[in-house]
Every structure is written in C-alpha cells, then in structure tokens.
Design a protein that fits this description.
By secondary structure, this protein is of the alpha+beta class. It has a single domain, classed as Pnp Oxidase, Chain A. Strands 1, 2, 3, 4, 5, 6, 7, 8 and 9 form a nine-stranded antiparallel sheet that branches. The longest helix has 14 residues. The chain is globular. The protein binds flavin mononucleotide.
Length: about 220
C-alpha cells in the first residue's frame, strides 16, 4: 500500500490534567456532570456525541455514535428508531455500553448498564421539541434497512412535507423514541504522560452505593 503517513508512528503524550480518587465526586453522575460541563465550555465538538455499543443474542457486538439528550441520577438518555439494528439488539439483549471520547481534554468516560425504553409520553415530549425537518426525517427513514437509492428517501420527505404542510408538529412514529441507560459501572479516564493514565471506576454495589476504585492503565 502506498501510504505516506506512518500510522504506527502517530503518538501523543497526554499532560493536561490528573485524576485522583480523593478528588472525584461520591456519585458518578455528579462526576460526569463536572466533566461534561468542562467539555461543553471548552472547544469540544459535539460533546454529547457518544459511542453506543449493543450486543445481539449471538454475542456479536455492534457500535455507532448517538447523541446524549439528557442525564440525571437515573441514567443517560438517547433517541433513535426502535426498529434499527440497535433497537432490535436492545429488544433481545437490554444491556449496552457508552463511550465519550473527548480528545481535546484527553478524557474518556465509559458507561455500562441496562437499557430500557423511555415512556411513550417522554418520547413524544422530546419528539415534539425537535425541528419539523427532523420529525419528517424520523418518519421518512426506515433506519438500518437497505434502500434502493437516496432518491427514494427524498421522495418520501417531499410527500411527508406535502402531507403535513399545514401542521407544525407531526405525530411521533411508534417506532421512534428514547432509551435510558441505567449505569452500574462508570469509568473516568484521564490521559497522563508515558501511558500511565489515571482510571477511576465506579461500580454499583446496591441501590445508591457506589464502590470507587483505581484501575491500572
Ligand atoms: C455525530 C453523530 C450523531 C448521531 N446521533 C444519532 C442519534 O442521536 N440517534 C440515532 O439513531 N442515530 C444517530 N447517529 C447515526 C448512528 O451513528 C447510526 O448510523 C444509526 O443510528 C443507525 O445505527 P444502527 O444501524 O446500528 O441501529 C449519529 C451519528 C453521528 C456521527
């Protein structure tokens, strides 16, 4: 292969910050909140973009980026098509993992836990808050299915635009809505020099009781 970039030689040393067990919040959501605010206030592009991994019943994982749309003590929320690949996998195996990779901050957050659908009311409330073009998109796109051409998609959009020309808000498709990941493991990773990174992991022991440990990098 004629490749002028030596991938093996790409290397960064991380020196921006440190993470000590004594300094982290007792609850992982409070710690996430602290880091997320830093990511939002600094030049991180789309700080709410996260990788979501799911696993099918045969144990085969798949991963993709989705947008975080909310977080609180109960967990992390995102929205998607329930009939997509991730939706089908979650139907069969309701566990998943999230990864935030904030390279500009040399920080990573890994989250694992059970994923359940939000209530129809919560999904509808968020659906209605989206721009009309996104609402049309949710109806137009049979997410993760094979389509013959882009044209087909654009025709569907045009026909929906005509159908809903007089309406500001479309009804929410039943196959589109939110999920909540309730975390039982959350790891905060801070890049350090010479690959001796800081890793602090929260592990849920029982309701509200989080064990906090340092992991080797
Ligand atoms: C920055 C970014 C944000 C995205 N946000 C979402 C999202 O919030 N919801 C979603 O369903 N797909 C989102 N996608 C598209 C997904 O990565 C993916 O292509 C789609 O959900 C289909 O995944 P699946 O076939 O594994 O179910 C986003 C992609 C990128 C790159």
């Amino acid at each position: 292969m004629n490749n002028t970039i030596s991938v093996a030689d790409l290397r960064e040393d991380y020196r921006q910050a440190t993470l000590e067990i004594e300094d982290v919040a007792p609850h992982p959501i409070a710690q996430f909140d602290e880091w997320f605010k830093i990511a939002c206030s600094q030049a991180v592009k789309e700080p709410n973009a996260m990788v979501l991994a799911t696993v099918n019943p045969q144990g085969r994982p798949s991963a993709r980026v989705v947008l975080l749309k909310g977080y609180d003590e109960s967990g992390f929320t995102f929205f998607t098509n329930y009939q997509s690949q991730k939706g089908k996998e979650l139907e069969e195996n309701p566990f998943g993992a999230l990864v935030f990779n904030w390279l500009e901050l040399e920080k990573q957050v890994r989250i694992e836990g059970k994923i359940q659908k939000l209530s129809p009311e919560e999904s509808t409330s968020y659906f209605k808050s989206r721009p009309k073009s996104s609402q049309i998109g949710a109806w137009a796109s049979p997410q993760s299915t094979v389509i013959e051409s882009r044209n087909l998609l654009e025709e569907r959009v045009q026909s929906l635009q005509a159908q809903y020309a007089q309406t500001e808000t479309l009804p929410r498709p039943e196959h589109w809505g939110g999920y909540l990941l309730s975390p039982d493991r959350v790891e905060f990773w801070q890049g350090r020099t010479s690959r001796l990174h800081d890793r602090i992991r929260y592990h849920l022991q029982s309701q509200g009781d989080w064990k906090i440990e340092r992991l080797a990098p």
